[in-house]
Amino acid sequence: MRLAEAVRAALAMVEHPATRWRAAPAPYPDLADAGFRWLRRHRYWFAYTIEAEGAVIHSIVYDAAHIPARWR
């Protein structure tokens, strides 16, 4: 249930121009090299890009997961 809420909130945020995003989750600064924008909603990290057609969410990762191990 919380995942569905987080997805809805993230979708609303990624297309809003004032959304504050991060280059990578704080514990994993090396993920900034991937070039995604990151934001956190509830217990989930969302990696996304802004394309000409709109925002694209590429990944959703639970915050307690070891993200680099699941990322590459």
Describe this structure in words.
The protein has one domain. It has helices at about 1-15, 65-70; strands spanning about 35-40, 45-50, 55-60. It is built from two helices and three strands. The protein has about 70 residues and is of the alpha+beta class. It is globular. It has a three-stranded antiparallel sheet with strand order 1-2-3.
Tags for this model:
single chain, globular, 2 helices, 72 residues, 3 strands, three-stranded antiparallel beta sheet, alpha+beta
Could you outline the blueprint of secondary structure elements for this entry?
Layout: H1 2-14, E1 37-41, E2 44-51, E3 54-62, H2 67-71
Number of discrete domains? 1
What Rg do the Cα atoms give?
Answer: 12 Å
Secondary-structure class: alpha+beta
Strand content is 25-35%
> Can you summarize the main beta sheet?
3 strands, antiparallel
Low-pLDDT regions: none
Q: Give the rounded overall mean pLDDT.
A: 89
> What's the SSE pattern?
HEEEH
Number of extended strands: 3
Number of helical stretches of at least 4 residues: 2
Overall shape: it is globular
If strands are numbered along the chain, what order do they take across the biggest sheet? 1-2-3
Percent range of helical residues: 25-40%
N-to-C terminal Cα separation, in Å? 27 Å
